[in-house]
Design goal:
It is built from 14 helices and 21 strands. By secondary structure, the chain is an alpha/beta fold. The protein folds into 2 domains: 214 residues, FAD/NAD(P)-binding domain; 189 residues, FAD/NAD(P)-binding domain, CATH 3.50.50. The protein has a 5-stranded parallel β-sheet with strand order 3-2-1-7-19, with helices on one face. Strands 8-17-9-10-13 form a 5-stranded parallel β-sheet, covered by helices on one side. The N terminus is likely disordered. The protein binds NADP nicotinamide-adenine-dinucleotide phosphate.
Amino acid sequence: MNTEHPTRKSLRIVVMGAGMAGILAALRLREAGRHTVVVYEKADRIGGTWRENTYPGLACDVPAHAYTYSFAPNAEWSSYLAPGPEIQRYFESIVQSHQLESLIRFGEEITRCEFVDGQWRIETARGTHDRADIVIAATGVLHHPSMPAIAGLDSFAGPHFHSARWDHSVPLDGRRIGVIGCGSTGVQIVSALAGRASNLVHIQRTPQWIMPTPNDPYTEEQKAAFRADPALIDAVRYNEEYTSAVRRFTSAIIDKESPEIHEIEAVVLKNLEDSVRDPVLREKLRPDYRAACKRLIFSSDYYQKVQRPDVEVAIGPIAQIEPAGVRMADGAFHALDILVLATGFRADRFVRPMRVLGRNGADIDAAWTPAPSAYLGITVPGFPNFFMLNGPTGPVGNFSLIDIAERQWGYIEQLIADLESGKGRLVDLKAETMRDYDQRRIAAARGTIFGSGCKSWYLDANGVPSSWPWSYDAFAEQTARPRAGDYEYIH
Ligand code: NAP
C-alpha cells in the first residue's frame, strides 16, 4: 500500500501502441508501480514510425541528443542526426532495460474502444476483449500511407511500393529508379540512392525549400566523453544555439512577417542560389511559395546529389504511369525499373480506423468531422479518461516529438493523479473548453506560415493548419498543469 497517498487506488490502464509515445507511457506507469498496465501493439515489434519506415537514407532531422528521452540520454549516437535503424535500436534498448516487454501484447490491433458503464471496453482484431479505467492513445501521427491517385499506377511492370512499405527484396544497385514526392522522405531517399541507381529520377509535383544542416559523425573520443560525463550530452541537448533555434523557428511559424521567418527565407534562398550551379536546374528547383509553408526540409547533401549526371529532376504533374515508366503532363517519359512512392501519409487519421465511442454514444469519427482536434493534442470532450499523446493540433513542426510527448505525459499524469486521489472516477474535458480552444486555435492557425498559401499535410479538410499555432513556450506553459475549470470530474 502506498503510505504517502493512502487514498490512491490502482487503476487498469490500456496503452494503445508501442512506439515512442506508448513506450514513454508504459515506462512511466511501470515506474509509478501502482497500476495494471497493458500495451496493445498491432505489429510484432515495438518502434512505431521507426519500425515501419526502413527506406534507404532514413534519418531523423531533429538532432539525435534532442530526439532522445530526457531521462535516458544516449552517449552512443553515431552522428548529429541519427539514422533510423539506430533510433529503432535505441527504443528497443529502452524497452529491454526497463523490462517493458512483458507489458506489451504484440499482434493485437485494437479495432474498437467503447465507453460503457464508466469503463472503456477494448476489442482487438484477434477477438481479445479487455477493459480499462484509462486509455492512453499513443497511435502516432503519420502512419497510414497515402497512396497517390495516379492513373495507371497498378499497370507499372516493375516493383513499386510506398516509402513506408519498403520492399528490401528488390535490388537497387544499377537500376533505373523513380521517386515520386519530395517531402522529407523523398529527399532523404534520393540523397541515399544517388550513385547506387544507374539513373535516378526525382519526380516533384511541387519543389521544396531546403535548409542546409550539418550532420557530422560523433568521434569515439566524443562518445567516450558523453559516457563519462552525461552533462556533456545535456550541453548538446540544451545547447543555447539549438534551443534558441527551436524558439526562433516557432516565432517564424506563428508570425509570417516576423524577422525570424525572413531569416529562414534568406538561408534557404542562399542555399538554392549557392548550391545549384546550372541555372535551368536552379529554376526547376525554386519553389513558388514561402519557406516553411510546407514542413521545412533539412538536408546536408540533397542539392549536391541532384547535380550528379545520373540524377534527374522532373518537375510538374504526372499524366499517367505506364508499364515501362512515368509519363509527365508535359509529355516527357521516364523509363524506370523501380518506382518509389514517397507520397506521404493520411495525416488526419490518428486513432482511426479504430472505432472509438465515448459517453452517450459520442463517436470520435463524428467529433472529428470535418477535421480532428484535441485540446493541447490530448483530450476531447465526451471521451472521459481517454488521453492522447501527439494527438491532433499538437506541435508537429520541426520539433522533437519526444519532447512534446514528455510534456503531454506530465500533464496526463496529473489528470491520472486526480482520479487516483478520488477527485472523480472520470475526468472529461468540458465542451466549452474545447470550443474556446478551437476558436482561438483556428484564428491563430490561419495567420501562421503554414496557412500562407501552399498545400501540405498540415492543412485540415477546411484548409486550416492543424498544428499548434502558438509558441513552444506557450505549449510548455499550458501543458505544465491542467487548468482549473477545464475539466468536469464525475463521481
Ligand atoms: P509529405 O511531406 O506529405 O510529402 C509527400 C510528397 O508526395 C509531396 O512532395 C507531394 O507533392 C507528393 N505527392 C503526393 N501525391 C502526389 C501525386 N499524386 N503526384 C505527385 N506527387 C505527389 O510526406 P513525407 O515526405 O513522407 O513526409 C511526411 C512527414 O513525415 C514530414 O513532413 C515529417 O514531418 C515526417 N518525416 C520526418 C523525417 C525526419 O527526418 N524527421 C523524415 C521523413 C518524414 P505536393 O507537395 O505537390 O503535394
